[in-house]
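> example.struct
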């Protein structure tokens, strides 16, 4: 099924009762400046929304297709967190155990007491690197592990919350390597233990076999959007080399080093905090499996309950020194809160810079995924994603 709306091709289908989502998706193109994107929703294991539309980039006539993929930045964090949840369900990982129990070399420079839970809640003080980290270091997992082992935390464990924008995924990957009996990297573990069994087109470390024609390049925000889209204090902090935000998001290696000169992605480089590439359908299906109990992956109820449980604040509360506002994180996922609301209380997910989003809402069995190639600048949720999620909540089956 395809409908034309102001010369924009919208393709796909929605199940009965989910028509509001299609309406909001069309309006993203006609009213909210969408260039190309996709939205997918699973409910109790059934795909009920599967929409895509627009073009690969603004000057192109090449349509966004059902299998078009795009970098989703920090929405990758949710897929990465699923690997640790799978290790938890297999009895190999205890969220409340000290990281050094699994990774003895980690117990340096004041990190011996940091727990897995504190790291995954951005409460470990490890949001930046003191030693230089570039693409070569990221590609050499042993070298990167040494840098992380020597890193001194900026704050005491559990004292404050500061978004580990890029570093989190590297620490997660080394944990996976230490815990997994086969010592696989996080990207390989995800590919073999989650993506393959579920048939997902999502990669943490895009292989060279995927042709460029399947990748939508990202359109960055304009200078005007950069200057006006964020609070002034946030913009000033982004230019201050001494700020938490600068160290977490901007420098060494920064949040854009894994995107190539064509604004796609650096291939075969695992960046579990931001370099994931995939479809909305893959994100929605993965979250949909978690929302429906995870039987396809052998997930235990105790793991799902842990993911649904309320976030635990740092001793300074949920104020985030990097994001400069109140956000809640737990076990590698974002949790719904006043700073960023989605789904019901037990939901868990991850938004990505520019607008992408994925989440699981076990209360109603919903898995949601949205991807786009035009990056926005909003911290509290992109208007396109917000409109889609608001439309989803209008559907009786998702309330």
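> example.seq
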């Amino acid at each position: 099924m395809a409908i034309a709306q102001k010369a924009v091709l919208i393709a796909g289908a929605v199940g009965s009762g989910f028509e509001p989502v299609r309406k909001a998706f069309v309006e993203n193109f006609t009213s909210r400046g969408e260039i190309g994107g996709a939205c997918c929703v699973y409910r109790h294991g059934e795909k009920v929304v599967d929409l895509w539309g627009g073009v690969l980039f603004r000057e192109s006539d090449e349509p966004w297709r059902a299998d078009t993929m795009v970098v989703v930045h920090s929405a990758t964090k949710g897929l990465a967190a699923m690997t640790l949840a799978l290790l938890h369900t297999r009895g190999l990982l205890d969220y409340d155990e000290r990281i050094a129990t699994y990774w003895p070399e980690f117990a340096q420079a004041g990190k011996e007491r940091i727990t897995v839970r504190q790291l995954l809640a951005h409460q470990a003080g490890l949001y930046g690197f003191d030693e230089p980290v570039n693409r070569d270091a990221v590609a050499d997992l042993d070298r990167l592990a040494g840098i992380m082992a020597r890193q001194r935390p900026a704050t005491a464990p559990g004292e404050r919350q500061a978004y580990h924008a890029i570093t989190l995924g590297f620490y997660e990957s080394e944990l996976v390597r230490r815990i997994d009996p086969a010592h696989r990297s996080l990207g390989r573990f995800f590919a073999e233990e989650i993506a393959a069994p579920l048939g997902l087109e999502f990669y943490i470390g895009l292989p060279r076999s995927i042709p460029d024609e399947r990748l939508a390049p990202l359109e960055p925000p304009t200078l005007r959007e950069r200057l006006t889209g964020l609070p002034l204090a946030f913009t000033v902090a982004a230019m201050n080399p001494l700020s938490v935000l600068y160290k977490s998001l901007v420098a060494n290696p920064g949040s854009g080093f894994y995107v190539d000169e064509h604004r796609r992605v650096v291939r075969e480089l695992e960046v579990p905090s931001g370099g994931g590439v995939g479809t909305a359908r893959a994100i929605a299906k993965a979250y949909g499996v978690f929302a429906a109990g995870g039987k396809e992956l052998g997930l235990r109820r105790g793991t799902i309950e842990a993911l649904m449980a309320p976030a635990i604040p740092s001793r300074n509360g949920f104020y985030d020194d990097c994001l400069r506002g109140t956000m809640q994180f737990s076990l590698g996922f974002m949790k719904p809160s006043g700073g960023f609301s989605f789904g019901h209380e037990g939901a868990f997910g991850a938004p990505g810079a520019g607008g992408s989003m994925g989440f699981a809402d076990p209360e109603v069995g919903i898995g949601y995924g949205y991807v786009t190639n035009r990056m926005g600048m909003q911290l509290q949720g992109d208007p396109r994603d917000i409109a889609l999620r608001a439309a989803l909540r209008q559907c009786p089956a998702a309330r």
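> remarks
The first strand starts at residue 2 and ends at 5.
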